[in-house]
């Protein structure tokens, strides 16, 4: 059994007793008091928001912040998970540690002395989600894993299906959510019941705890797959060859493109597939809120937004990253998702000679993209006319993704940016139905011109058995 200690001044005796009750239920050793004059030893995990975790003579030492931001239950969850993951071959429960070393060492000095050790320990650790989730993550076709209370749902590219196995209790789900968040260096507790984070592997976590989640803890995991899907995998039927040629023409012609669609429609997957076929001698600078893009490209640079700390300092916004990317000699600037005021800096970058850029945006159709861009422009204090002028100069094509009835994610529309008397408009150039038939839209000829396709290409395609009266 593993022994752990807690500073006597960090929690009152009643709180320590409550923690011990929770830890015993989890099969962990109890916490013991440590004299207040005991000096800490080696830094264990650093400053995790309002909980300081230390190593003292081989034991785990937890100091809870004076603000009381962590409830007893949350501290017990975190402690239980840490002890379960990092067992120490030490003697079991010890009532008190006598101070033998009179020399006190400050936390700042300890951190400086042991940074390398801490980093090496972190790199060597392999995170496990448990025997229910791990096999699903290992499956090559799984894109999403959703935990609703005790029940597990999985998407293998064909829609959501309930998994055969489920959790024994909602407490197990809560502990897993807290453990994943702690591994990501994020806080998840009653004071902060919602977390959005990413693991080093690229797996994206979104978790919600009760009472915000009324029916039990919720965990959403988005699983990235490195370059496993191509553009053709996002097409259906006989449209695959044509759409692949369109994507290649857009890349070769250095067209600036927006990929639109709803959540889970395949925007990021298509963007990763497109980036994987970019010329290998081009430098791609990708900017994301949370790193999700995993293309196979030899010269890919990732920039990731960083949230501010509890003091409100240290934050790095997407807008700052876009401005930084311009100075990094990019051949192409990629914005993983436009969702705020960074749209202004992205438009500025694309309008200053950085052609061939790509981005994704949430929208229900190509026709709805202008309204979405206007909403984002308002956040950046851009009026409709100013936004329209910049978007028309910056973007050429819109590629809309949808998830079909069978869960298949596919390219559903192609559109081009147009002008409607000073207002922004996106016209449909092609509709692709679930059978793979392509129906030309009002902007079909403009699409051909932008992609460098001639009338012969159009006639050849429309002679391959597709509808000509669409």
From TrEMBL:
All copies of domain Bacterial type II secretion system protein E, residue ranges: 132-398
- InterPro entries with a match to the protein in the record: P-loop_NTPase, T2SS/T4SS_dom, T4SS_GSP_E_ATPase, TadA-like_ATPase
User: Which Gene Ontology terms cover its molecular function?
Assistant: ATP hydrolysis activity
For this protein, the record's SUPFAM superfamilies field holds:
P-loop containing nucleoside triphosphate hydrolases
| Domain of life per record | Bacteria
Q: Which NCBIfam families match?
A: heli_sec_ATPase (TIGR03819)
| Similarity annotation | Belongs to the GSP E family.
Q: What is this protein called?
A: TadA family conjugal transfer-associated ATPase
According to its UniProt entry, this protein's organism is Schaalia canis
The lineage, from the top, is: Bacteria, Bacillati, Actinomycetota, Actinomycetes, Actinomycetales
